[in-house]
Amino acid sequence: MKKIILDTDPGVDDAMAIAYALTHPEIELMALTVVFGNINIDFATRNAQYILNELGATDVAVAKGAAIPSVQSPLPHADFVHGADGLGNVYPGSRPGIPATTAASLNPDAKHAKVDALDAADFIINAAKENPGEITLVAVGPLTNIAEALRREPELPGLVAGLVIMGGTVDEPGNVSPVAEANFLNDPHAADALFAADWPTTIVGLDVTHKIMLGDSHLKSLDDRAGESGKLIWESSRFYVDFYTNSGAAKEAAEQGAEPQCAMHDAAAIAAVIIPDAFTMVRGAARVVHDGIAIGQLALDRKGYAYAIPHWNNRPPTSVCMDVDDVRVRNHFLQTLIDHHLR
Ligand code: RIB
Ligand code: CA
Question: Is residue 220 included in any domain, yes or no?
Fold first, then answer.
């Protein structure tokens, strides 16, 4: 069994990753540690509890984490991608346009997984110390919680099996600027700090996640065949698919007659843990730009040449996914949920 702590800002594709990790028979999902990002921290925590409840996994721990980035001022939440509730406006009682400051107490009667007394960073440190070398941290939101855990416990890299990050892009255009991906842009200082530490790190960025698209026919098959997980993913993805189909490459594809579709970003990070051989990786020292016009950019030294500029020196190599067997990963995700959904 692979023990995973999923650091997440749920999030429609985060919900896909949670369902995938929960249902895969080789994964023990130990906890969701929650971070701001797609939505504010109160909504994100509530969504984590709600998703676990809907999927029949209220025994999975939830630990609340950072509300704002480590250094920079917070950016607006991505309600135009994930809805005003962060879940495509399917959270009970949700409706588009709810102000983030007033909706934290929505649906007070809902049953939820409990929020741990420890904050996310301390939860990660404690769990790593209690299970030395066993836990893979999978981070699919801004990297604030993981960087804070590293700041509090510099020995953390030696206590975990690895760190898999959904974020960044090397060759593929960014999704929040021509060069930046959302998770890295939301806390570029935190992301950059992680790549200075010596732990087995894998980046699953837009170079691969934009290749693994889910069409409405795939999502409908989950609705029909994957129980409550499939229904939650189908319903919450309606708003998200609409966003994709009206922007970027999915819009171009729709104009060519392709069915409505979306990316399954965060679920791809789970696939990289379970079927890493479906991904082609390069290794090199990684930096994340934290100011200027390229803020949020993953800047990778792919060659290791000697340069006069020292910013990449003395950084351990990071593995970065550059290509993927998209059919294999998509099918693995769909079949896992269809074969193993809990409810
Ligand atoms: O860029 C994609 C990432 O940003 C995903 O983690 C998604 O959930 C959003 O947070
Ligand atoms: Ca996310």
Answer: no
